[in-house]
């Protein structure tokens, strides 16, 4: 469908602050940016003519570093991003846990104690009071820190005798007891314990992430996901299927994590 956009402040992004009168698009592609007169002369007839009514228009944005599958996960899980206190987070966990099926983990995303009035951190003991049988894993907004309850820690084989891995931290209190907080490479042991996504589940969260990007003006990204969801090839094929075969058009540069370079070379990329 060929569309003429006009009557707004349209930035071309070719030069700093460069604007134009009109843009012509067809099937998601920009065909022309320039004067309205030239657009009508060279590209009419149009299926639609849309007045921006003075609004601002930009070409699609490209995120310079993100985790697209991680974004889809966050949107598909319990989301703490807007919660203002530790109490709110724990209440949401308590409500969610009643709906889980046997064997499921409760995984939440986005807690940020720096936004809370008290700044009080979540702990294993907080989560154990909600459930001492169902594994609970809550990721901080940065994804470099998580908090887990006792069942989750046990599944990962982490206890008071565990040593900090290189590049990671298993936090303990003054008495040497686990707090449930894991940082950086210490999280790897927990992630390896999580139930692995099926191919269909991986495609679903990828579609969810792309849809969210579209809704916020992103049409492309440099994304790092190839080392966190099983083998490299399976993750790559999920991207290939969703973007090319399911018509979820999204210009994606897949960052090759150093730990999958071996697999990457074997596939002769």
What's this model, at a glance?
GO terms for molecular function: hydrolase activity, acting on carbon-nitrogen (but not peptide) bonds. With 269 residues, the protein is of the alpha/beta class. The model has no long low-confidence stretch (mean pLDDT 93).
Molecular structure report:
By secondary structure, the protein is α/β, with parallel strands linked by helices. The protein folds into 3 domains: 2-59, Roll (Urease, subunit C, domain 1), CATH 2.30.40; 69-191, Diaminopimelate Epimerase, Chain A, domain 1 (Roll), CATH 3.10.310.70; 197-266, no CATH class. 31% of the residues lie in helices and 28% in strands. The chain is built from 9 helices and 14 strands. The chain has helices spanning 36-43, 68-76, 86-97, 124-130, 150-155, 187-191, 199-215, 232-245, 261-266; strands at 2-11, 19-26, 29-34, 48-51, 56-57, 61-66, 78-79, 106-111, 136-140, 145-148, 168-172, 178-184, 218-223, 251-254. A 6-stranded mixed sheet has the order 7-8-9-10-12-11, sandwiched between helices. A hairpin with a 4-residue loop joins strand 9 and strand 10. The protein starts with a strand and ends with a helix. Residues 48-262 form the Amidohydrolase domain. This is Amidohydrolase 3 domain-containing protein. GO terms for molecular function: hydrolase activity, acting on carbon-nitrogen (but not peptide) bonds.
């Amino acid at each position: 469908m060929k569309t003429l956009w006009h009557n707004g402040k349209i930035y071309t992004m070719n030069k700093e602050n460069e604007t134009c009168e009109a843009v012509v698009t067809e099937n998601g592609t920009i065909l022309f940016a320039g004067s309205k007169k030239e657009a009508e002369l060279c590209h009419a007839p149009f299926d639609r003519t849309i007045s921006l009514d003075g609004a601002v228009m930009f070409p699609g944005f490209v995120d310079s570093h993100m985790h697209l599958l991680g974004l889809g996960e966050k949107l598909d899980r319990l989301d703490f991003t807007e919660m203002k206190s530790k109490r709110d987070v724990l209440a949401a966990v308590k409500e969610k846990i009643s709906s889980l099926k046997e064997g499921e983990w409760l995984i939440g995303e986005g807690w940020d104690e720096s936004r809370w009035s008290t700044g009080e951190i979540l702990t294993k003991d907080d989560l154990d009071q909600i459930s001492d049988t169902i594994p609970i894993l809550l990721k901080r907004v940065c994804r470099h820190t998580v908090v887990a309850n006792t069942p989750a820690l046990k599944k990962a084989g982490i206890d008071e005798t565990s040593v900090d891995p290189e590049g990671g931290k298993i936090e303990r209190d003054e008495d040497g007891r686990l707090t449930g907080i894991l940082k950086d490479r210490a999280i790897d042991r927990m992630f390896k314990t999580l139930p692995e996504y099926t191919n269909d589940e991986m495609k679903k969260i990828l579609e969810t992430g792309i849809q969210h990007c579209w809704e916020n003006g992103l049409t492309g990204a440099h994304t790092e996901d190839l080392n966190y969801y099983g083998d490299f090839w399976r993750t790559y094929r999920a991207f290939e299927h969703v973007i090319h075969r399911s018509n979820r058009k999204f210009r994606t540069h897949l960052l090759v994590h150093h730990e999958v370079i071996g697999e990457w070379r074997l596939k002769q990329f």
